[in-house]
Amino acid sequence: IKRNLSSIGKVEYVILLIACFELTTKLKIPKKVVINEAIQLSKIYGCKNSYKFVNATLDKIAFI
Question: Model pTM greater than 0.90?
Answer without folding.
Answer: no
